Protein 1
Amino acid sequence: MGSLESNNLNGDIISSHTIGKVITCKAAVAYAAAQPLVVEEILVHPPQKMEVRIRVLFTSICHTDLSAWRGENEAHRVYPRIFGHEASGVVESVGEGVSDIEIGDHIVPIFNGECSECVYCKSKKSSNLCEKFRVNPMKSTMAGDGRCRFSTKDGRPIYHFLNTSTFSDYTVVDSACLVKIDPKASLQKMTLLSCGVSTGLGAVWNTADVEEGSTVAVFGLGAVGLAVVEGARTRGASRIIGVDVNSDKIIKGKAIGITDFINPNDLDKPVHDKIREMTDGGVDYSFECAGNLDVLREAFLSTHDGWGLTVVLGIHPTPRLLPLHPMELFDGRRIVASVFGDFKGKSQLPHFANQCIKGVVKLDEFITHEMPFSKINEAMQLLSDGKSLRCLLHL
């Protein structure tokens, strides 16, 4: 392969001198649940067949990263491990067989990949659950050979997370989990498309297909919930009700598009009764973004009988089952879950990115903080304290 040098946004050089070689770089490594991440030098090995090594320029922190760091799910307790799954960057090198991505391309990694060959990717039923690269918290190595591409300086393997592991200067990702984006797009903003914004907005556009004039209730106004609000706004929803126990969320919620706000702690009745009063029988669509089963029940009951649809987006670590009686579904209400907003990542996300470039979707409101990567533990605490939506870390 010939020599190639390409300036990226930070003025760094993507050079052919590193191709095929082990790279020493900084990464934030988790060694135990709920312990501070250790920012240290690690080794990142070259990409193998159908893999890509990327220079991460920006990464942000999602609640899934926070939950994994806390060890809330047994599947996440694999150490040492590099978390992170929202990022953007530039391709440093590609492995054998990769034809759709080249050195220097601007990319966004995605935790829910698309191989384009399996029965799910080829299905006309609009499934985005790839057989090989769907989200899998149990997976901690590369799909090709079951080995890690990260190691400590003394040779111990460092495990992967959600197909991406973006809390590192460099990471190796299966090509099925990378989306090539227009180089004119802001890489800072495109980071948000890796998870939160795509998940929330896609739930509105793809899963629910909300129509103009519809009424919507959003339970939980974190980044995913506010992305739902943004999606409902772009679809022309007539009423968007935000529900959250943190009344400070009303400010950001109204900036993005909520028309009404409810704090359940301020009510003397169930939330669903209040929403039914406000909307003449219930909303057309509700979105549960809190990961709480009691909230899910309120979201379901807040929809209008006959046609109401509830979309589940929250991650539910509890072993409890759905708090619904089967007969409650006979009144016409429906409930469905959405993974990654039902976007097929590689084939549909580039179009979504172009819509963001054109200003159809407002991304600026989601980035509440920016920090150098060395302050990643402070960024984790901001999210844990409910003080940030997305903290963008500069690598």
Protein 2
Amino acid sequence: MVEVQHKFTITALVEEPGCVLFTLRNHLWVPQNANPLRPLLSGSTAASNGNPRLPDSLHYIDPSGRPNAYQRAIVEVGEVLLLYDSDKRFPTWGFGARPIDGPVSHCFNLNGSSHYCEVEGIQGIMMAYTSALLNVSLAGPTLFGPVISTAALIASQSVANGGRKYFVLLIITDGVVTDLQETKDAIVKASDLPLSILIVGVGGADFKEMEVLDADKGERLESSYGRVASRDIVQFIPFREVQSGLSVVQAFLAELPAQFLTYVRSRNIQPNL
């Protein structure tokens, strides 16, 4: 085995068949030939963020080069996730926008392609994000359900193909969501899959709805049809807390290890030693 040290306790998530990572205090234990996860990223471009051409918008691109709230979150969080990605390519989507000459979309490829959703590295995400702001019109409502369902489909296809992959969907949002019950339904449905959802809240909005999705109080989410989530798969972090001194690594990996281990233990997945 190969030992990779880090300042904080970390569990990375892998996509190589038969490989599982274990956490041991401040060390990350990686089975040989492990291939770290390729995270899934999604960011809200919804109208609730304000006109991106005005300085008071969370999406405002400052000519001086000072990053806006979304750009800061992309860099801070992306640099953590990048450590566990083998090819440094990220499937990346946007939601809550109207592409040129098209209807409002709640899950579109952020790079503008109709055929593929991946971008290369953090710089690729930043370029796709900036380009999208120039080529789409922000629009409501803000729906999480379609993005979560897209990530869940990828995870379910992996399981169906016999893969032992675990996926993380990162959602960056201003906290406004208009399909709360549909989002709950999608999360409950996805709770049986190898998937965790990290939600970053940017700006100063009321994040009560995001906190509802993060079942930290011990009560699992229940769908509209009475099904209870098999496990907690959501971690919500207000980005302002990260900026006020809380380590990004600490914040984002506070729950991921338990979520990951709960899944592999429920499936009796054994590591390659």
Protein 3
Amino acid sequence: MICLDETWTSHVSLTVSNKELRKTAMAMHGAPLYIAETSPSQIRGTLISLKELFIVLGILLGYLVGSLEIDNVGGWRYMFGFSAPLAAIMAIGMWTLPSSPRWLLLRAVQGKASLEDNKKKAIQALRTLRGRTASEKVLADDVDDTIVSIKAAYAGQEAEGNVWDVFEGASLKAFTIGGGLVLFQQITGQPSVLYYAASILQTAGFSAASDAAKVAILIGLFKLLMTGVAVFKVDDVGRRPLLIGGVGGIALSLFLLAAYYKILNNFPFVAVGALLLYVGAYQVSFGPISWLMVSEIFPLRTRGRGISLAVLTNFGSNALVTFAFSPLKELLGPANIFFLFGVIAVLSLVFVILVVPETKGLSLEEIESKILK
């Protein structure tokens, strides 16, 4: 029984996807959408990336609790029980959040509610979200500007598009960008690389590598550090530079891992460096930036449906990689499977360079008018 619990805890710590254990589809859909619609454009990237930072922090706390309880029968349950009070606090906090000002104004423009009433509600929502220090005039000007943008784009249309509208016009272009990013996020092997983390660190002589939970903590700390880099730089250097640099680093790390298992197995530092490069490159690019782009690229009318389909694409591709990994590992071996992931990473780099636009500093309405049309 003890052996079973220890094995399960270590297996969870290292081999599950670095995000799927604690995410739900509703949270993945709602959180970035709400943050994008309520954030000033100058700090939108930082705030949405902070969501990823706290997710990684949550993973790290789970690893720490799992490591402390790994020798106890049923100790793995503490990883889940520890998060319950935090989830309750989050639920209470979300209950107090106001409606999205953009959603309120869209409903008014579409004739679903009184314009004056919803304008007042939008101003009150902005005051709640941005604090009492924001002046009434600034809030009113923001609301008026948003009304003008929404009227120009959506007057006379239904307040919310259906699923099929996502595959038309500007929404299809947005889905190509957002869906493509979250697809490549998974099929570049992100869940699979961590599978080899323990063996790679063991070959390099790290004593902590004898305990999978300790390896997970080390990797979690590094992930947290690199995610912090993305948070502080995304609204400074922009989305595309982080994506291009990070995805390039992912491709290089995968080819280095392939070379290690093929011809460089006497040089374990190569594998350790490649592993850290992969984790760091992922956390400054695909990790936070993919969800940032998904949350801000869709037109307002189809934003909810579009993000839902992007989440479905992400979860579906994650399941595909997870289920296909073991058969591919047996068929190809680690060298060839890392080479395959490296080729896919190169394709994803080409996709980013040719398809993904820069959205730094643009309002959501400007993204729609300048990039999608």
